[in-house]
Amino acid sequence: MPRLCVAIAVTLLSLFTHAEAAPRNEQFDCESTPHEFVSSLIRDRWINAQPNRVEANSVNAFRPVDHSHPSAFGFSIYVVLGYAPDDPLFERGAGAKVVSPLYGVVVKGPVESVRTRVREANSDATVRSVVPLLLTAIVCGG
Fold first, then answer.
1. Cα–Cα distances in Å, from 26 out to 78, 114, 120?
2. What is the SS3 string spanning the chain?
3. Exposed site from 15, 83, 111, 136, fewest CB < 10 Å?
4. Predicted TM-score (pTM) of this structure
5. Phi then psi dihedrals of residue 98, to 5 deg
6. Residues 6+ apart with CB under 8 A from 64
7. Taking Cα atoms as reference points, which of 141, 21, 30 lies closest to residue 71?
8. What pLDDT is recorded for position 24?
9. Tell me, what's the pLDDT at 18?
10. What is the CA radius of gyration of the chain?
11. What's the rounded Cα separation, in Å, for the pair 117 and 136?
């Protein structure tokens, strides 16, 4: 009986770990809306419901929830970005707001490695360095 309990526990743990680390690559086809993208991550409890930062241009930054390990294209997500004009999900910044909707993530990884994975996935997302060799943005829209 104890072996069965251990086997069940190991199976459940592996399923839970896999679900936590599941990539969100399919949403980088740039066909989603910022609302759909961010609200799905909130609903799945991968990110906090309130942004931890709102830029002057109204881009909202949401941090992953403790003990979640979301990834995109095999890279750990550092922060999730989103904004859409007149969408109550997003807070307004103090400056001139971004005109067109955008969503994306900042991942932990160098820009060339991230760009290669994004291209291999045939994604239309834009890839830009945030902190050289450390953080890279993957963004749809904007």
1. 18, 15, 13
2. CHHHHHHHHHHHHHHHHHHHHCECHHHHHCCCCHHHHHHHHHHCCCECCCCCEECCCCCEEECECCCCCCEECCEEEEEEEEECCCCCCCCCCCCCCCCCCEEEEEEECCHHHHHHHHHHCCCCCEEEEEECCCEEEEEEEC
3. 15
4. 0.81
5. -60, 135
6. 46, 47, 48, 70, 77, 78, 79, 80
7. 21
8. 62
9. 38
10. 17
11. 12
- Averages of pLDDT over each 10 residues, the chain, 142 residues: 40 37 67 93 93 96 90 94 96 92 96 96 94 96 86
Domain ranges of the chain: 23-141
β-sheet bridge partners, residue 53: 61
CA distance 29 to 97: 24
Looking at residue 67, its pLDDT comes to: 83
Structure token pair of residue 49: 């419901």
As a whole number of Å, the end-to-end CA separation of the chain is 57
Spatial contact of 80 and 61, defined as CB atoms under 8 Å apart = yes
